[in-house]
What does this fold into?
Amino acid sequence: MTEVFVALGANLAQPQAQILRAIAALQSIPATELLACSPLYSSSPMGPQDQPDYINAVARLQTSLAPHALLDELQRIELEQGRERKDERWGPRTLDLDILLYGQNIIDDERLTIPHYGMKQRAFVLVPLFDLAPQLTLPDGSQLAELTAAIDRTALFRLPE
Ligand code: ROI
It folds into this structure.
């Protein structure tokens, strides 16, 4: 079994409901256990500003699926929740599920870049990840606690539970 962290993001079609539904859907992935989920956060959009605020969270899973098999399952959930493949790269989306970390593995191919390429610059990823795993060390040796302490979190708000 490998410990995996998945980032969730949504900013269309009742994003908070999309995230809660996605968390439930993560529990249906075969050979995989949902161990914990962070609180939900609202965040202003990174990228083009002419789109709604996002709801973001991070989930901690344990899986015996290989990385690409897990990606297939996450993409199935995105499609089931109305994600359209024409979504432009920095545009709004009903649901985004990104593998942040797959154990301490480093993967870089056509479909997957793990660790996620942008995670160290994104408060909406680092802060909920830190909620779940304050002691985490990334595969490049950096300490999550140090990255999180240094990140600008002015546009990030934790939602009441
Ligand atoms: N901005 C925020 N705040 N949250 C996201 O999940 C998110 N996802 C994206 C881009 C468009 C980069 N901006 C985002 O894909």
Q: What stands out?
A: The CA atoms of residues 38 and 48 lie 26 Å apart. The first strand starts at residue 2 and ends at 10. The domain at 2-158 is CATH 3.30.70.560 (Alpha-Beta Plaits).
